[in-house]
Design a protein that fits this description.
This protein is α+β, with helices and mostly antiparallel strands. The protein has 2 domains: about 100 residues, Phosphorylase Kinase, domain 1 (2-Layer Sandwich); about 230 residues, Aminoglycoside 3'-phosphotransferase, Chain: A, domain 2 (Alpha-Beta Complex). About 45% of the residues lie in helices and about 10% in strands. The strands form 3 sheets. It has a 5-stranded antiparallel beta sheet, with no helix packed on it. Strands 6-8-9 form a 3-stranded antiparallel beta sheet. A hairpin with a 2-residue loop joins strand 2 and strand 3. The chain is globular and about 55 Å long.
Length: about 350
């Protein structure tokens, strides 16, 4: 094993010399372990996929492979990062403990952003994610599989929340009384979601499903969206998932980790930039009925994340990593604050 705990057999599987490579941790992700690997003048990104979250890593690899083949055939000039094949010709290798690993090219002129500072960045991020979905609109869904079951199914998330109330410790129920009340207050969003899905007005597409700002590589010099990264959740979904999560993470100047709720404000200019950037690519692809769901998308995805944080707190912090007591509760309060501001804007223009 090397100092960074990368098994030597994984490096050797990609013809990398364990004694000559330089390895440094990369990125701020909470799910996979990511490293920059350099040997001579060649740089790569090596990731260990979290098999506790992605229980079927072969599905992750297969989905990316199918998408990569479609793009290579139909959009050969589109920049899509696909895995580097191992010596054995695999796009995924397993170590002795059955942990899956993949190697990706390192993009020298690419840079990620942890926060948005300009409307142009918001526009570019949305355009980047939407551009991928547009190009995949003609890709068959037949062999695409969910990499996380019911990931953005709001109906299921509400069920999980209700179960957590029944099972939670009394002390946590008391501490979380206010966000629990808010979760019940906004439960009508789950009814709207169910009605929207049942209407079949939304077309199932291949979507990214985790459209945070740091999942887009920007060109370091031009500050334009270069390519979409972190493709583990690339799977069938609805456009409201991608656009909604973009809205959720872009409208506030602070992240979901901010505990001072007074710092959370609604940035209408960023909201408009995200919607305009997304529709630049997808506006002519979405149906009239889908376009009418644009304003609902941000509400739905903000509510689902508030529920997930609150549910995890009530269950004893079993899913999300926490670094202090009550972190998931604070995340939930944060997201409910964003939700209220977003709802006021969408429905009342406050």
């Amino acid at each position: 094993m090397v100092a960074t705990n990368i098994p030597e057999e994984i490096l050797q599987a990609y013809n990398l010399n364990p004694h000559l490579v330089k390895i440094v941790p990369l990125g701020a992700g909470h799910i996979n372990q990511t490293f920059k690997v350099t040997e001579d003048s060649h740089c790569y990104v090596l990731q260990r996929i979290n098999k506790q979250v992605f229980t079927k890593p072969e599905c992750v690899a297969e989905n990316i492979r199918l998408v990569a083949n479609h793009l290579a055939k139909n959009f050969p000039d589109y920049f899509f990062l696909k895995p580097v094949l191992s010596v054995a010709g695999h796009d995924l290798e397993f170590d002795r403990d059955n942990h899956p690993w993949r190697l990706m090219p390192f993009v020298e002129n690419g840079v990620t952003k942890e926060a948005l500072t300009t409307e142009q960045e918001a526009f570019e991020a949305a355009r980047g994610f939407a551009g991928l979905t547009r190009r995949l609109s003609t890709c068959s869904l037949e062999n695409m599989k969910p990499t996380i079951e019911r990931f953005h199914d709001l109906t299921w998330r509400v069920e999980q929340f209700r179960e957590s109330i029944v099972e939670a410790e009394q002390s946590r129920l008391e501490t979380a009384a206010e966000p629990i009340a808010l979760a019940k207050q906004f439960s009508f969003l789950a009814d709207e979601y169910r009605a929207l899905i049942d209407s079949e007005d939304l077309q199932l597409r291949i979507t990214h499903n985790d459209t945070k700002i740091n999942n887009i590589l920007f060109d370091r010099e031009a500050d334009k969206a270069l390519c979409v990264i972190d493709l583990d959740t690339l799977m069938p979904g609805y456009f409201i998932y991608d656009l909604g999560d973009l809205i959720r993470t872009c409208v506030s100047p602070v992240s979901e980790e901010e505990r001072d709720l007074s710092k959370i404000v609604f940035r209408k200019n960023f909201y408009d930039a995200v919607v305009n950037g997304y529709l630049t690519e997808m506006g002519n692809v979405l149906s009239k009925e889908e376009l009418s769901a644009v304003s609902f998308s941000g509400l739905m995805m903000t509510y689902i994340m508030a529920l997930r944080f609150l549910t995890d707190y009530l269950k004893g912090d079993v899913y999300y990593s926490v670094h202090y007591d009550g972190q998931n509760l604070n995340r939930a309060k944060n997201q409910f604050t964003v939700l209220q501001l977003l709802y006021d804007e969408v429905h009342h223009g406050k």
